[in-house]
Amino acid sequence: MSIPSEQWAQVIEETGKPPVYKKIPVGKPGPNEVLVNIKYSGVCHTDLHAMLGDWPLATKMPLVGGHEGAGVVVARGDLVKDVAIGDHVGVKWINGSCLNCSFCRQMDEPLCEEATLSGYTVDGSFQQYCVANADCVARIPKDVSLEAVAPVLCAGITVYKGLKESGARPGQFVAIVGAGGGLGNMAIQYAKAMGLHVIAIDGGDEKRENTLSLGATTYVDYTTSKDLVADVKAATPDGNGPEAVILLAVSELPFQQASQYVRPHGTVICIGLPAKAYLKAPVFETVIRMVTIKGSYVGNRQDTAEAIDFFARGLINAPYKVVGLSELANVYELMHAGKVVGRYVVDTSK
Ligand code: NAD
Ligand code: ZN
């Protein structure tokens, strides 16, 4: 397999400005790394946050974004033993971690202080050839479609982990806030596969149809509901609210509302990362209703393997649209306007 010296990529050259589609050199893998010929990459709202400089964490600059890259290994470093040329792998948010600190030793590699982040602190998957740490690439079975699995590599892993962190058990109810977006659609499918009832919360009729068709039992439209807290509680059989809430929205208000409609002794899982937002909940009600509020951040290598296994068994079917890598800036515009239903996946050959 011949590896070119140059490739097409989407490069952010200045924070706040759209990426530039241009040719850049192909990277070389270090001793522990692989070079992945990225075929498809999902577009996550995190990529837009990175472009806009929304978070209190600096990005590499210039930056190639992207962290849902699915492709084929074309080269590997001298120390790589268990990933072979030709293997199908995924470049995910955690590009590499030390694997030896107290967090990594407990399988919490997203918490590793030396973790590198694809499309944020190192170049990511919006290029045709991407370098990633061999220990951290997702292993993808060869009979799994690379374009369909791409959104699993961040959206799928993250919501699967969040659902596990919520402690919700089969037969219980989960409210998914931002259910019509990329993570939201995946969350509905994973929740369903895990035996949960889903209350979908998002805005507009297109997202109503989309979320109900994916298996949500109720849809609450935050743009038209007169009393969202009452509507969510009313969607559960005894009116006491869902056992778990998965917050995926990109605005602050839902983060303040969730503790009011979660069931007493229930758990609110925060995953969405709206810019400059704060969590606020009344101490009195949080205490006497025994509410748990926690953050959840991507997933470890085991969560990755499990999330891909759900997908490989045919349990996860979330819609996605494929466009060329050259059209990435248009996808960001639609996403910024809240108009993306499900996920966009870019094809790096176009
Ligand atoms: P997306 O743009 O595809 O979806 C966001 C959805 O939220 C949209 O459908 C939008 O209509 C909806 N929404 C906005 N305001 C709402 C409100 N008030 N109530 C209900 N719904 C509302 O984005 P995405 O790619 O699914 O990402 C979602 C968020 O998750 C982003 O902030 C992203 O950075 C974050 N994220 C976090 C992790 C993590 O590990 N914690 C991982 C991946 C992504
Ligand atoms: Zn992501």
UniProtKB/TrEMBL annotation:
MF-aspect GO terms = alcohol dehydrogenase (NAD+) activity
User: Sorted alphabetically, which PANTHER family does this protein's record hold?
Assistant: ALCOHOL DEHYDROGENASE 1-RELATED
Check the record and name the InterPro entries matching this protein.
ADH-like_C (IPR013149), ADH-like_N (IPR013154), ADH_Zn_CS (IPR002328), ER (IPR020843), GroES-like_sf (IPR011032), NAD(P)-bd_dom_sf (IPR036291)
Task: Write down the EC number.
Answer: 1.1.1.1
UniProt similarity note: Belongs to the zinc-containing alcohol dehydrogenase family.
Q: What is this protein called?
A: alcohol dehydrogenase
Judged by the first EC level, this protein's enzyme class is oxidoreductase
Identify the keywords attached in UniProt to this record, alphabetized. Metal-binding, NAD, Oxidoreductase, Zinc
Cofactor(s) needed, names only, are: Zn(2+)
The record places domain Enoyl reductase (ER) at 16-346
**Pfam families noted in UniProt:** ADH_N, ADH_zinc_N
